[in-house]
Design brief:
protein transport, about 80% helix, Sec-independent protein translocase protein TatC, transmembrane helix
């Protein structure tokens, strides 16, 4: 009886959602957007006093690699203010990401069936966790290795002195690339669950996937072999992890059918 009652409630909820006028959808969406903006703005203001310290943490891998007589520089008058300011905003967005995903989930939840709800939230949670893991991997493993490589190949007559804005742009690009790269298992699972691609097809085309990983890494990373390998290999491994979970879920889906 409980299951039937729950199913009836879900059916009524879906029907109400489908029959809802467009302006009510927009009102609900605006409510969620206001919450997201308030959260990001609140975090941004709370973190603002620590903006310079945050930039110090970001620049630590570079400062550790620089020669004794070298330092970071600001080639623009406003750079000393804008660089920590922009980083502070990015950090606020990253910290707010679970809340943002929860608001997205809350908005689309009424339009989902029970089996879709049961898998959507774990996928969202896994997605944001993998995104954070990708950023951490980029900061602690990839960034120091890349900086060490580029600084040590500089000619002896050249003193490396990186602009703080350029360094921020470089780091944010690197973090985004690795953050989104670590979403590969989620993308693989979604493709398998949606029926767009089967696990058999993925296995048959594995060699093309591997080549594709190196092709993407070649354009997404700085122009050196080390960076390319440090992105391509994790992409391949993450694909294999996604494929492994996809096979398990595909078998479970077939057993239920």
């Amino acid at each position: 009886m409980t299951t039937l009652h729950s199913s009836q409630e879900q059916t009524d909820e879906l029907q109400q959602f489908d029959e809802m006028p467009i302006h009510k959808h927009l009102i609900i969406l605006r409510r969620h957007l206001i919450k997201v903006v308030a959260m990001v703005l609140g975090l941004f203001l709370c973190l603002l006093p620590f903006a310079n310290h945050t930039y110090q943490l970001l620049s630590e891998p570079l400062r550790r690699q620089l020669p004794v007589n070298s330092s970071m520089i600001a080639t623009d008058v406003t750079a000393t203010f804008l660089a920590p300011f922009k980083l502070n905003l990015c950090v606020a967005l990253m910290i707010s990401m679970p809340f943002i995903l929860y608001q997205i989930w809350s908005y689309i939840k009424p339009a989902l069936h029970q089996h879709e709800r049961s898998i959507t939230w774990p996928l969202l949670a896994s997605s944001i966790s993998l995104f954070y893991v990708g950023i951490a991997f980029a900061y602690f493993v990839v960034l120091p290795s890349i900086l060490h490589f580029f600084i040590n190949i500089a000619p002896e007559s050249v003193a490396p002195m990186t602009d703080i804005n350029s360094y921020l742009t470089f780091c944010l690009k690197l973090f985004l690339v690795f953050g989104f790269t670590f979403e590969i298992p989620i993308i693989t699972i979604l493709l398998i669950l949606s029926g767009l691609v089967s696990t058999t097809t993925f296995v048959e085309k594995r060699r093309f996937v591997i080549v594709g990983c190196f092709f993407v890494a070649m354009f997404a990373t700085p122009p050196d072999a080390l960076s390319m390998i440090m992105l391509a290999i994790p992409m391949w491994m993450l694909f294999e992890i996604g494929l492994l979970f996809g096979k398990t879920l595909e078998k479970r889906k077939l057993n239920h059918e």
